[in-house]
Design a protein that fits this description.
The structure holds 2 protein chains of 2 kinds.
Chain A (H helix, E strand, L loop, with lengths): L3 E6 L3 H12 L4 E6 L2 H11 L3 E4 L9 H10 L7 E6 L4 H9 L4 E4 L4 H16 L1
Parallel strand pairs in A: 1-2, 1-3, 3-4, 4-5
Helix pairs in contact in A: 2-3
Chain B lengths: L2 H36 L2 E6 L4 E4 L1 H5 L12 H7 L2 H16 L4 E9 L5 E12 L5 E10 L1 H23 L3 E5 L5 E4 L1 H7 L3 H4 L4 H11 L15 E7 L26 E9 L8 E7 L1 H37 L4 H33 L7 E5 H10 L10 E5 L6 E5 H17 L7 E9 L5 E8 L32 H11 L3 E7 L3 E9 L1 H11 L1
Parallel strand pairs in B: 12-14
Antiparallel strand pairs in B: 1-2, 1-5, 3-4, 4-5, 6-7, 6-10, 8-9, 9-10, 11-13, 14-15, 15-17, 16-17
Helix pairs in contact in B: 9-10, 10-13, 11-12, 12-13
Classes of the chains: A alpha/beta, B alpha+beta.
């Protein structure tokens, strides 16, 4: 069974912990986490994660949209699926996310169980 | 001639005489009737014997009966207002010397009751072959009412002009031909135009001028909306004069005007249905209102975001607890996290409400009184506890125990609790926190009592110090320490409220010292007395 690397990028520790717990029951997922845009890019370069859950608003120079644009503009990371996970839910926020190349946009609060279904779905599409 | 013919002749003559008398009487009555109807007083001056006739109406106009004033030239001259005397006499003399037929002058005559009556005096001269006047007669018309109306009008116009020129709102008027007829100083200041370049412009040219100075992103609209108003954005770089600083009290908020390189004018056109009235356009500077509005919206959206963050985690954790079986240790950890997050939300809401309350500055919310500083500090520390932290705060007093400050004690305690809990939260290394109370005289010679909190925690980077009072701002080295980003904003509001000062010194990795300085009692009392 191939393991799937999931990277969670969020400056909020509780949010990262919640997602870690969510995936912890499934041994097929390898959980990676980053608390800033810069850290995320470093991990992406080193680990080539399959799925990236990205918060948008993070302190520092690189926000979630920048990370998303970086992934989608680089040939070697393009195939990674980027899911934006943001508390910003306005139409223009979602449009900006899609503009940056995101595959999916989920607003907070979200259901962790539903998130697992999203991951299953993505994995199914990847293997096709 | 016989006696009989003589008698009949006499009879005829006397009949004719009677008839003439009758006619004269009729003519007189007719004349009186006309003059009465005209409401004018008649005067008649025979220069051959210098006799003067003044009609009863002439005298009545000045409050006299016919018998009370003699029919004489001196009657007129004795009643002329001293200020008008020279002018009235000279204009009559000039007229007599001239070859003119008609004469006119306006002067005041004294009424019997002492008030002054404005008289329009119009006369006609009958001149002999040498052009010398032999008789002059004319009429007096009482124009006091007219003069009063005229003076009222002039007074009104002066008042109106003063209002328009001192108005903080810009005002531009157009005449019936749709040409700019007036612009007030406020409008010139708002737009940077000069009066000369605007007067005589027609509406199309005026519109073009406004379009030229308005921002391309918010262009000036030639055609107004249904309520005849629009907002105009003007770039400040075009303005020769600076924005008048908004009233000090309107800037209670620790906000910066971020978009202040624009001036926003609200333009309202007053178009009357009566075509004879001028079109008036008002311009109100609403820059501050627009900025406040934007900041309020930004604040609300950030506040909503900050509230949604912990709630998102609580939502997710509780769903996992419901849907999945965890071992006892993990379950406890999750509940612990949920509990902490709930605290976080409560703290955030409380601080938001405190901030809103202080910013509203309702004076009845605060209760200022003289309090011994030592008592306030002790009461604060007695109730100060951070969940799961057992560190003691060392207190050093460098003031005598009776030193008093004039404060709202609840607010002062709130500020102190905020800086104490920051000192502990941001010293995860377990180092102790020190509290010092001292006095100083500041640069304005004002005696102050300082509450100084020193920690040996993570510190604040130099470039971040300027942001610590921004709402929701949190440094990037706070990592996982829970906080709302509102604490220091709140502390700043409280210190401002007390006319105090805040000093923050910090070295990254070494620790932070926050000093809150409050004026010593007697100074503040004086300040408040001045205000009252």
């Amino acid at each position: 069974m191939t393991k799937i690397k999931i990277l969670v990028v969020d400056d909020n520790a509780q949010m990262r912990n919640l997602l870690r717990l969510t995936f912890s029951a499934y041994p097929q997922y390898i959980f990676l986490q980053a608390q800033s845009g810069q850290e995320a890019i470093d991990i992406i370069k080193a680990e080539h994660p399959t799925i990236i859950f990205l918060d948008i608003m993070m302190p520092g120079d690189i926000d979630g949209l920048d990370v998303c644009a970086f992934v989608k503009s680089a040939e070697e990371f393009k195939s990674s699926v980027v899911v934006l996970l943001s508390a910003k839910g306005q139409k223009q926020d979602i449009a900006a996310g899609m503009q940056a190349g995101a595959d999916k946009y989920i607003t907070k609060p979200f259901s962790p169980i539903a998130l697992l279904d999203v991951v299953t779905e993505i994995c199914a599409m990847q293997t096709q | 001639m016989t006696d009989s013919t003589m008698a009949s002749e006499i009879e005829f003559l006397s009949r004719e005489n009677a008839q003439l008398r009758e006619e004269l009487k009729k003519a007189n009555a007719h004349f009186t009737n006309i003059t009465e109807q005209l409401n004018d007083g008649i005067w008649d001056w025979d220069l051959s014997d210098n006799s003067v006739y003044l009609s009863p109406r002439w005298k009545e106009m000045l409050g006299y009966d016919n018998a009370e004033l003699p029919n004489a030239f001196a009657t007129w001259t004795s009643l002329i207002h001293p200020d008008d005397f020279a002018y009235a006499i000279k204009s009559l003399e000039d007229f007599l010397k001239s070859d003119h037929t008609f004469f006119e002058s306006i002067h005041r005559l004294k009424h019997k009751n002492g008030r002054w009556v404005w008289i329009l005096d119009r006369g006609v001269a009958i001149r002999n072959a040498d052009n010398k006047p032999v008789r002059v007669f004319g009429a007096h018309t009482d124009i006091t009412k007219l003069r009063t109306v005229e003076e009222t009008l002039m007074q009104r116009e002066r008042e109106f002009n003063t209002i328009v020129s001192f108005s903080p709102d810009g005002i531009v008027t157009f005449n019936q031909e749709n040409v700019v007829s007036s612009v007030n100083p406020a409008f010139l200041k708002m737009t940077g135009f000069t009066r000369e370049e605007l007067l005589k412009l027609d509406k199309t040219q005026f519109d073009q001028k406004m379009l030229d100075i308005s921002e391309p992103t918010h262009p000036y609209q030639r055609h107004l909306t249904h309520d005849n108003s629009q907002l105009i954005w003007i770039s400040k770089k075009d303005l020769s004069t600076e924005l008048a600083p908004p009233h000090k009290d309107s800037l209670k908020f620790n906000f910066k005007l971020r978009h202040s390189n624009y001036r926003v004018l609200k333009m309202t056109a007053y178009l009357s249905k009566d075509a004879s009235l001028p079109v008036i356009i008002y311009f109100r500077d609403v820059t501050l209102e627009v900025e406040m509005d934007q900041m309020k919206n930004e604040f609300l959206s950030v506040a909503a975001h900050e509230l949604r963050m912990p709630i998102s985690s609580i939502y997710g954790y509780s769903e996992l607890l419901l849907m999945r079986d965890f071992d006892e240790v993990t379950r406890r950890d999750i509940l612990q996290a949920v509990h902490g997050l709930c605290n976080n939300v409560v703290e955030l809401i409380n601080q938001l409400l405190d901030l809103a309350r202080i910013e509203a500055q309702c004076s009845n919310v605060f209760e200022f009184e003289n309090q011994p500083i030592t008592k306030l500090i002790k009461e604060t520390l007695d109730n100060f506890k951070i969940y799961g932290d057992f560190r003691k705060i060392e207190v050093h007093y460098f003031v005598d125990e009776f030193a008093q400050i004039y404060v709202d004690s609840d607010q002062l305690k709130r500020a102190l609790i905020n800086i104490l809990s920051n000192a502990i939260k941001y010293s995860p290394n377990g180092q102790n926190v020190e509290l010092e109370i001292r006095m100083r005289t500041n640069s304005n010679d004002c005696e102050q009592i300082g509450i100084i909190v020193k920690d040996k925690g993570i510190g604040i980077a130099k470039e971040n110090l300027e942001h610590i009072f921004d709402k929701f701002w949190r440094a990037d080295n706070v990592s996982d320490i829970i906080g709302s980003g509102l604490g220091m904003a709140l502390v700043k509001e409280i210190v401002d409220l007390h006319h105090g000062e805040i000093d923050v010194q910090s070295t990254l990795g070494k620790g932070t010292t926050v000093a809150l300085w409050f004026p010593v009692s007697h100074h503040l009392e004086e300040q408040n007395d001045d205000k009252n």
